[in-house]
Design brief:
The complex is a heterotrimer of chains A (82), B (479) and C (350). Chain A has 82 residues and is an alpha+beta fold. Chain A has a single domain, classed as Alpha-Beta Plaits (2-Layer Sandwich). Chain A is 12% helix and 24% strand. Chain A has a two-stranded antiparallel ribbon with strand order 1-4. In chain A, strand 2 and strand 3 form a beta hairpin. Chain B has 479 residues and is an alpha/beta fold. Chain B has 17 helices and 14 strands. Chain B has two domains: 221 residues, 3-Layer(aba) Sandwich (Rossmann fold), CATH 3.40.50.970; 191 residues, 3-Layer(aba) Sandwich (Pyruvate-ferredoxin Oxidoreductase, domain 3). Chain C folds into two domains: 231 residues, Thiamin diphosphate (ThDP)-binding fold, Pyr/PP domains (Rossmann fold, 3-Layer(aba) Sandwich); 111 residues, Rossmann fold (3-Layer(aba) Sandwich). In chain C, 40% of the residues lie in helices and 20% in strands. Classes of the chains: A alpha+beta (82), B alpha/beta (479), C alpha/beta (350). Strand 3 of chain B pairs parallel with strand 9 of chain C.
Chain lengths: 82, 479, 350
C-alpha cells in the first residue's frame, strides 16, 4: 500500500487514534487535522492532509499512543521493494 | 545504531499487549492526551536503540501507570504503592547486569513512597527512576497530589490547595539534589516538541547510566493529565507551561554521568565446599571430653548474676561451651532488655544429660552471685540443698538460708591478683568445676582455643591461670 | 557433624546461609536485631547481599523484589515490624513469591515491651495482610530448630511459592544451645519459568493484579487449592510422654520447652500429663488434635503466651468433641513448669 506514497509521510491508524489533537498542534506544517469522522471507539481521529510532510517526527514523538502514528522518513524504502 | 528511516512503535513495547485483559490488546489504557504514553514511547525507543529490551526490568507502581507492564517487552514486576524504589533496589542487586527502571507517579513517589525514593537515591542504587509529575492523582480520580499546585482544585481540595493547611507542592528534584550519591538529576516537560526532545535526551541519559552501572539517575517529567485537569490535551500542555514550570523549574540539576565510579555487586558463593570453609566448619571439631561419672552434680540449673560488666554473660556462655564439649546438653539464656542496661544482669545455664526443657532456671540448684543484690535476689529461689557460690570480694553479708551449701569465693580479688579483672569469668568457671566436679581444670584449659578463638596467647594463658586459681581456691578451702 | 554453641537468632541466619539464602533485607528491632547483625556479619563473606533497609516496609518490598528475581531471600523482625510488613506479605502471597520471614515475637499491643510473648500468632498464622492468603508457619523451640526449620522454610517457600514464617519468641531467639550444622544445600529448584532475571528468556511478569472478577476468583481458588495441599502434606507435630497421658497440654515455641519440664514434674507427682506440640501452626495439626479425645485424653490445656489465640485453633480443630482450657501468660511473663502443673491439678482434679 506504500508504493504510491511520497516520503516523508505520516501514517495514522484511524482506529487506534484517540483524537487528542497533540499531533495537530505539534505539526510545524499544519498538515494534520482532526477528522470530522468518528472511529469505532467514537473518537474524531487525526488525519494527514496527504502532502506537505517534512519528516520532522513531531507527530510521532508527541503521540501518546504507541501504535497510532508511524512516520516514514525521507530515505524510507518500502520493504517489498528493498 | 543505523539512521532511522521510519518512526514506528518501538520494539521496547510488546507487540500485542497480552497481559491486558479485554479485547483492546492493540492500544493503551491511557486517556487521550495523557503524558504517560509519550514517556512510555521514549523509554521503549531508547531500550530498542541501545539493544536493552531483553536486559531491562521495569517496576510498575500504583497509579495510572500501574499497568506499565502491559506494554514493556521487558521483565516486569508490579509492586505495592510507593515501594518501587525498594523493590528496584533488590532487583538491581539480584541482577547487577540488568537495567532496572522504576516508573512512578507523584502520589506513589513523593507521598506514600517519599522515604523509599530518598533512601534508594541516597544508596546510589544502580537504577533509573522516571517520575511522572502531573500534579494530581489520576487513577483514583483526581485527588490532591504532593505536587498539586497552590490554589489548584482537586477532588480533595475543592476550594483549591491551601498551603497553610495542605503544605506546599514538593519539588523532588531539588530534594534529591541534596543527596550526594545520585549521578543524574533532571526535570523535563512534555508541554511542547522542544521539551519532548529534551525529555527524550534525559530518558536516554538515565537508561545509559543504568546500563553503564553509573548508579542512581532521576528524571522528573512534567506531564499532562487532561482527564484529571478537566481540559483538553493541548490546553493541558499550556497549563504545564503557565502553571507548573514556574513552580517546577526545568533544569539538569546534576550530571555526573562521566564520573568513573561504577556500581559493583558481589557474586553469591553457593558452592557447598566453599560455604563450609567460609563458615568455619573445619574448626568446629567437638572435643568429646569424658564426663566424670562421680561428679557431685551431674545436672546443673545455674543462675549467674551480678552487675553489668562483671562478665556475667560470658561466665554462663563459657560454662555452656565447656559443658557442650563434655557432651552434655546445654542451654544459656540471658535476661535481656532494659534490665541489661545498667543494674543487674543475670543468665540461666543448664548442663545435663537429659533433653533440656525450659531454659530459664526458675528453681536453680546453683547460683553464682557476683554482687550483693544478686545474692539477695537469687538465694531465695535456690532449691533445698542447692549450691550458692558468691563473690566474697564484694559481698560482705552472709546468706540467710541454712538449707543450702555456701561457697564464698573471692572471685574479683583473684582476678585482680592476676592483674585483669576481666578474667573473673574464668575464675568462676574454675571454681564451678571444683564445686560440681563436672569438669577437669586441665581439660578446660585445653579448650582455650575454642573459648577464646582469635585471642592472643597471652590472653589464653591468663585465662588458664584464672581457671586454675578458681579451681584451687575451692579445693583448698572447702574440701 | 560440626557443633557450635549459638543463639537461636544466629542459628536462623546460619540455617539461611546453609539453605543458600542469597539476600537478607531487614530493619533492626529488639529482640530480633541479632538476626540482622549476624546476617550483616556472615552474608558479605559469602558474597550474599545484606542490606539494612530504611524501614520494615522497605525491607519486605526488597524481599518481594529479590524473590521475584528467583533469589532465596529472608527478612527478620518482631511484632511491630511484622505489622508493618503485612501489606508486602500480602503482595508476596498474591504474586506467589517464595520468601522467608523470621518473627521473634515480643510483648504487645503497640510498643508493648521486648519480653517474650506469642501475641503475633493471629497476625502471622491467619494471614495478617489483606486478602485470602496464608503464610506457612513453622514454630521452632530450640536453637537447633532455628537452624533446621529455617532451612526447611526455604524449601517449603520454593515448593509452594509462598511466604514461610519462622515464628518464635525472644526466649528461643536469645538462648544459646549447641547447634549441629547441617550440610549446605547444593541443589536448588529451577525458577526459570517465572523469575525475572534481566535476560531474554526471563521476561516474565510478577504481579498480583487480576482486574477481571472471574480471573481473581480463579486465582483465589488456586491459592486455596495450594493451601489445602500444604495442609495435607506439611503438618508436623512433636509429642512427649503422650502414650499413656490422660491430660494433654498443648503449646508451641518456647512454651513447649517449659511444658516438657512441666510434664516431667507432673509425672514425678503421679499426674499423667503429656505434651502435644504443633511444630507447624499453618498447617495446623487439626486431625491430630481432633484425635486426642479418642486416645484416652480426658482434658486438654492449651498454654500460650497470648490471650487465647492458639486455643482458638485448638478448639476449632476439636470441633466440639472436647473443649480445651487455657492457661495464658502475657506481657513478657513466661509460665513456669510448676504453675502449669498446678493449673492441671486444679482444673482436672489430678
Amino acid at each position: 500500500m506504500n508504493e504510491h506514497r511520497e516520503y516523508p509521510c505520516p501514517e495514522i491508524d484511524p482506529d487506534i487514534c484517540k483524537g487528542c489533537g497533540l499531533c495537530v498542534a505539534a505539526c510545524p506544517k499544519d498538515v494534520l487535522m482532526i477528522s470530522p469522522k468518528l472511529n469505532s471507539k467514537g473518537f474524531h481521529y487525526s488525519e494527514y492532509a496527504g502532502e506537505g510532510c517534512i519528516g520532522c517526527g513531531n507527530c510521532f514523538y508527541v503521540c501518546p499512543e504507541p501504535s497510532a502514528v508511524t512516520v516514514y522518513l525521507k530515505d524510507y524504502v518500502p520493504e517489498e521493494v528493498s | 545504531m543505523a539512521q532511522k528511516t521510519v518512526l514506528r512503535k518501538p520494539r521496547g513495547f510488546i507487540d500485542v499487549y497480552k497481559h491486558k485483559p479485554g479485547a483492546e490488546k492493540d492500544r493503551t489504557h491511557y486517556c487521550p492526551g495523557c503524558g504517560h504514553g509519550i514517556l512510555h514511547k521514549l523509554i521503549a525507543e531508547a531500550l530498542e536503540d541501545f539493544d536493552l529490551v531483553e536486559k531491562s526490568i521495569v517496576i510498575s507502581p500504583v497509579g495510572c501507570s500501574v499497568f506499565a507492564y502491559y506494554y514493556f517487552d521487558t521483565g516486569n514486576l508490579q509492586v505495592a504503592h510507593g515501594r518501587a524504589p525498594a523493590v528496584a533496589s533488590a532487583v538491581s542487586r539480584a541482577n547487577p547486569d540488568s537495567v532496572v527502571i522504576s516508573y512512578q507517579g507523584d502520589g506513589d513517589l513523593a507521598a506514600i513512597g517519599g522515604n523509599n525514593i530518598l533512601q534508594a537515591a541516597n544508596r546510589g542504587e544502580n537504577m533509573v527512576v522516571f517520575f511522572v509529575n502531573n500534579a494530581i492523582y489520576g487513577m483514583t480520580g483526581g485527588q490532591m497530589a504532593p505536587t498539586t499546585l497552590e490554589g489548584q482544585k482537586t477532588t480533595t481540595t475543592p476550594y483549591g490547595r491551601n498551603i497553610r493547611t495542605d503544605g506546599y507542592p514538593i519539588q523532588m528534584c531539588e530534594l534529591i539534589n541534596q543527596l550526594t550519591a545520585p549521578v543524574y538529576i533532571a526535570r523535563t516537560s512534555l508541554h511542547d516538541m522542544p521539551n519532548i526532545r529534551k525529555t527524550r535526551a534525559a530518558v536516554r541519559k538515565g537508561i545509559q547510566n543504568a546500563m553503564n552501572r553509573k548508579g542512581f539517575s532521576f528524571v522528573e517529567v512534567l506531564s499532562m493529565c487532561p482527564s484529571g485537569w478537566k481540559m483538553d490535551a493541548v490546553q493541558s500542555q499550556n497549563w504545564i507551561k503557565e502553571n507548573m514550570i514556574p513552580r517546577f523549574p526545568l533544569d539538569t540539576y546534576r550530571d555526573n554521568s562521566d564520573q568513573p565510579y561504577t556500581v559493583e555487586r558481589p557474586v553469591p558463593i553457593m558452592d557447598p565446599e566453599e560455604v563450609r570453609k567460609i563458615l568455619g566448619f573445619g574448626s568446629l571439631k567437638t572435643a568429646n571430653l569424658r564426663q566424670n561419672p562421680d561428679a557431685v552434680l551431674r545436672k546443673v540449673a545455674l543462675r549467674v548474676s551480678g552487675f553489668g560488666g562483671q562478665g556475667i554473660m560470658s561466665t554462663g556462655i563459657a560454662l555452656a561451651n565447656v559443658g557442650m564439649e563434655y557432651g552434655y546438653n546445654v542451654s544459656w539464656l540471658p535476661s535481656y532488655g532494659p534490665e541489661m542496661r545498667g543494674g543487674t544482669a543475670n543468665c540461666s545455664v543448664k548442663v545435663q544429660e537429659e533433653t533440656i526443657g525450659a531454659a530459664e532456671c526458675t528453681e536453680p540448684n546453683m547460683v553464682i552471685a557476683m554482687n550483693q543484690p544478686s545474692l539477695e535476689k537469687f538465694e531465695k529461689i535456690l532449691v533445698p540443698d542447692g549450691v550458692l557460690m558468691y563473690n566474697s570480694t564484694l559481698i560482705d553479708i552472709e546468706p540467710t538460708r541454712k538449707d543450702i551449701k555456701v561457697y564464698p569465693v573471692p572471685i574479683t580479688g583473684m582476678a585482680d591478683e592476676l592483674g585483669d579483672t576481666r578474667v573473673q569469668s574464668m575464675v568462676s568457671v574454675g571454681a564451678f568445676a571444683a564445686v560440681t566436679g563436672m569438669f577437669d581444670p586441665g581439660e578446660i584449659k585445653s579448650l582455650m582455643p575454642v573459648l577464646f578463638a582469635g585471642k592472643s596467647d597471652k590472653v589464653m594463658k591468663l585465662n588458664e591461670d584464672a581457671v586454675q586459681m578458681g579451681y584451687d581456691y575451692v579445693k583448698d578451702n572447702f574440701s | 557433624m560440626p557443633r557450635k554453641l549459638m543463639k537461636g537468632n544466629y542459628a536462623a541466619v546460619y540455617g539461611a546461609a546453609l539453605a543458600g539464602c542469597q539476600a537478607y533485607y531487614g530493619y533492626p528491632i529488639t529482640p530480633a536485631s541479632e538476626i540482622a547483625e549476624s546476617a550483616a556479619a556472615i552474608f558479605p563473606k559469602l558474597g550474599r547481599t545484606f542490606l539494612q533497609a530504611e524501614s520494615e516496609v522497605a525491607a519486605i518490598n526488597m524481599v518481594y523484589g529479590a524473590a521475584g528475581c528467583g533469589q532465596r531471600v529472608m527478612t527478620g523482625s518482631s511484632g511491630p515490624g511484622i505489622s508493618l510488613k503485612q501489606e508486602g506479605l500480602s503482595y508476596c502471597a498474591g504474586s506467589a513469591l517464595p520468601c522467608v520471614v523470621v518473627d521473634i515475637m515480643r510483648g504487645g499491643p503497640g510498643l508493648g515491651n521486648i519480653g517474650p510473648e506469642q501475641g503475633d500468632y493471629n497476625q502471622v498464622v491467619k494471614g495478617g495482610g489483606h486478602g485470602n492468603y496464608k503464610n506457612i508457619v513453622l514454630a521452632p523451640n530450640s536453637a537447633q530448630e532455628m537452624c533446621d526449620l529455617t532451612m526447611l522454610a526455604f524449601e517449603l517457600a520454593d515448593k509452594y511459592r509462598n511466604p514461610v514464617f519462622v515464628l518464635t519468641d525472644g526466649v528461643i531467639g536469645q538462648m544459646m544451645e549447641a547447634v549441629e550444622l547441617p550440610e549446605p544445600v547444593s541443589e536448588f529448584p529451577d525458577k526459570s519459568e517465572w523469575a525475572v532475571r534481566g535476560t531474554a528468556d526471563s521476561r516474565h511478569l510478577i504481579n498480583s493484579i487480576y482486574l477481571d472478577h472471574d480471573d481473581l476468583e480463579w486465582w483465589n481458588e488456586e491459592l486455596a487449592r495450594k493451601y489445602a495441599l500444604v495442609q495435607k502434606n506439611e503438618v508436623r507435630v512433636e509429642e512427649y510422654r503422650m502414650d499413656d497421658a490422660v491430660i494433654a497440654a498443648i503449646a508451641y515455641g518456647s512454651v513447649s520447652r517449659v511444658l516438657r519440664s512441666a510434664v516431667d514434674l507432673a509425672r514425678d507427682r503421679g499426674v499423667k500429663l503429656g505434651m502435644f506440640r504443633p511444630v507447624t501452626l499453618f498447617p495446623f495439626p487439626n486431625e491430630q488434635v481432633l484425635a486426642l479425645p479418642d486416645r484416652g485424653i480426658k482434658g486438654i490445656l492449651t498454654v500460650e503466651m497470648s490471650n487465647g489465640q492458639l486455643v482458638n485453633d485448638v478448639n476449632l480443630a476439636l470441633r466440639g468433641k472436647m473443649i480445651s482450657d487455657l492457661h495464658s501468660r502475657m506481657g513478657g511473663n513466661v509460665p513456669s513448669a510448676l504453675e502449669i502443673v498446678e493449673k492441671v491439678s486444679e482444673l482436672y482434679g489430678v
